[in-house]
Amino acid sequence: MATRISKTLLVASIGLLALLIVLNNLNDYNANFRYIQHVLSMDTVLEDSQLTWRAIHSLGIQKAAYGAIIGVESAIAALCLAGALRLLSVVNGDGVTFNRAKATAIYGLTLAFLFWFVGFMVVAGEWFTMWQSLEWNGQQPAFRFIGCVGFVLLYLNLSDDDLSE
User: For 30, how many CA atoms within 13 A lie in the half-sphere containing its CB?
Assistant: First the structure.
């Protein structure tokens, strides 16, 4: 029982994190949008970078990208929180039922992992060379999110038979 409660709470924690990020992005839209603008416009990368041809200067595309980011973060929050509620609803059930109830949480955690890894490490970090920016480099926070989400995803996917209660 303790393992199931632990898994449920950890999934809910990731959902809460994503929900707070969404609320922050909406409540402080301009401050957080500036981050997206700097990354996409590549205006703070190394002066002699040969990769700035990748920069996106269109305000419309930048706003669309930010909207997509907020949308994905919202989906992560919804899936993880719904997944945690689903797990909570069967926490006293048999192992097969509990393991089957993991699907929504697994989708949410997988989306979160892909979002922070592909979105921030691959696309922002490497394609837009965010790593070259001293002020607008979000790779370390993204890596922390990837680590936390990855741990919860691995832990959740262990069957109850793999863990001693």
Answer: 0
Q: Is 128 helix (H, G, I), strand (E, B) or coil?
A: coil
Residues with Cβ within 8 Å of 119's Cβ and at least 6 positions away in sequence, in order, are 69, 72, 142
* Tally of structural domains, the chain: 1
**Residue-range definition of the domain harbouring residue 138:** 2-162
Identify the CA nearest to 120 among candidates 133, 109, 129. Answer: 129
Spell out the long-range contacts of 57-63 with Cβ–Cβ below 8 A and sequence spacing 24 or more: 62/33, 62/36, 62/37, 63/33
56 φ, ψ (degrees, to nearest 5)? -115, 115
pLDDT exceeds 60 at position 49: yes
Q: Is the pTM of this model over 0.85?
A: yes
Alpha-carbon span 30 to 109, nearest angstrom: 28
